[in-house]
Amino acid sequence: MSFRAKLAQAAAANRSLLCVGLDPDPERIDGRDIASFLRDIVAATSDLVCAYKPNLAFYEQLGEGGYALLREVLQAIPSDIPVIGDAKRGDIGHTMEAYARAIFDDLGFDAVTVQPYLGHDSVAPFLKRGDKGVFIVCRTSNPGAAEFQDVLVEDAGATRPLYEVVALHARSWDEHGNVGLVAGATYPGELKRLRSLCPEMPFLVPGLGAQAGELEASVRAGLDAEGGGMVINASRSVLYASTGSDFGEAARREAESLRRAIEAQRAAAAGSRA
Amino acid sequence: MSFRAKLAQAAAANRSLLCVGLDPDPERIDGRDIASFLRDIVAATSDLVCAYKPNLAFYEQLGEGGYALLREVLQAIPSDIPVIGDAKRGDIGHTMEAYARAIFDDLGFDAVTVQPYLGHDSVAPFLKRGDKGVFIVCRTSNPGAAEFQDVLVEDAGATRPLYEVVALHARSWDEHGNVGLVAGATYPGELKRLRSLCPEMPFLVPGLGAQAGELEASVRAGLDAEGGGMVINASRSVLYASTGSDFGEAARREAESLRRAIEAQRAAAAGSRA
Prior knowledge:
2 copies of one chain form a homodimer.
Chain A: H1 3-13, E1 18-21, H2 26-29, H3 34-45, E2 51-53, H4 57-60, H5 64-76, E3 84-89, H6 93-106, E4 111-114, H7 120-127, E5 133-139, H8 146-149, E6 152-155, E7 158-161, H9 162-172, E8 179-183, H10 188-197, E9 203-205, H11 215-222, E10 230-234, H12 236-239, H13 247-273
Parallel strand pairs in A: 1-2, 1-10, 3-4, 4-5, 5-8, 8-9, 9-10
Antiparallel strand pairs in A: 6-7
């Protein structure tokens, strides 16, 4: 089953656009076994999410042990929940072939995030895998995102911020219906622009919780015409909702609360469409 | 010793600006033990180079075995030759802290390549490590590099291609004298522009050999005022110079030939400065 189909099924079955980022921080896990911590987080949330998203950095920082940990985590995720490898890789095509083998074939992720800066031939080794999802980093959630992403560019006769040019190019690369955008929740205005430029693409939306994105405004800005098309990620606010032994229950409560807030915006948007 | 000092010492001792990219391709190594193949390449070339540059993709594609392989290769490199981790990571600052731990602390690289697209706060966790080198991906060597890197941008009253804006920002980030640029050998004109904008920065120059950059034009375009400031990388043309059992000698001959061609251009440039 393609990533898009798997994502749609999981989102429908769990009535959720929430994605939980599985990013282990040894200091905040505080002496617990990291693998069992993450397994408990998955067990506590897997009926509340449409996807999981491990960011590879948090495994790579653990060396060989991180590799084994990542495989354990991937195994613990129910097979009907798609898993996005947040890798943000970007290199020349020959090198990206190797990254695609690592991320899709060796690790078995359903989707990935990639950098746009090297252009189409750079991401082509990922794009050609039509069964896999490819989220192009477009407008990020960090404070300095504007430094390059918002520079004004002459493109096809119009003046636009660079992130809009990236979005339009990404749309033109989408031969297999497997392309999406990374668009941060911290910038609802940009999310709205992107939705108008790319009405049918899935958006991976990081920046909820620890990064303090405005949930309501972001959801309203990013929903597609059918009230979907978003994968809204929270990592630290769910994983570390409690530092005590009740971390699983606390994570579930936080995930439930986020899902409910997202669903309320979807219902309101459906109402205003009706 | 800082990366910059180590690089200068190795370049002087070996009279070389050549860097060999240690990127294992199992199909081209053809049944040989990959670790011993790479150890032999290092042994055959370590008096001819100023640096080595493993690209992490080619290890990640091998799973857990790739991790062990990378550590073996890093151990086989003489301690006076700096090693650049070609990772091209780019993510929000919190995540880049984890990548910096992975690349600098766990793996022990002397320098790294990073993506610019997320801006200064994204690469700050690398930049603050003043003893380590940080090469910002600026103008790459792939055929489609121009798609985003050459878009014309309004910046501080001037209209410039985006890669020049990235270079100027990178220069302004260089508080610790540890910042460099990735600038492909396939585009000597762009290399020359970058040298005029950033007269004192080291350039990591990929694209020789398999990517068919014009060596002479690139070296002349990229040298700094002292006839240095370049780390000129060749990977496949050295590693796979022969597919036979003489691969080590063939790699050495190819590395010698590249070093000689680079030195000839440096001598000519020194002559024209005198």
